[in-house]
Amino acid sequence: MAEGADDTTFEEQESPPPQPAGTALEKLANSVNSVFIGGGEDQNDASHPEYEGESSLFAQAVYATEFLQCSLSCDPSSRAASEMNSVLNALRNAVDAQKQRTDTLQNLYPNARQLPPGANLRDLPLPDTNKVLACLRMAEGK
């Protein structure tokens, strides 16, 4: 510390006491490593539905929610637990809302039509050139 510096500008924060080996948080960390590194558990297990076809961001939100729930339940006496409960509730609400949202293609794209079986985009007729140019002009003007 430099001479003349005020020692009272920063409060020293107590660090949490070291946890003994084999705590619930350590077990959680081991299970996280086994899921993401590929050891131990089958990644296609039905107990991990968030990793099967959902968006990466949603899967990460589900994982973060579960991780926070477990870490707060394992160590409820920590100072961060009370602060994190409100954040965890908001995250849980967002995850639950996303799980309940069941948008179908018809809801997302009401004017879309399905391709006939066996057809692909190359089989579709090209749109009228004048209509395409009119749409491009409208898009350019915005």
TrEMBL record:
Protein name: Uncharacterized protein
Region feature (Disordered): 1-24
Coiled-coil boundaries: 81-108
Keyword list, A-Z: Coiled coil
Entry superkingdom: Eukaryota
Comp. bias regions, Acidic residues: 1-14
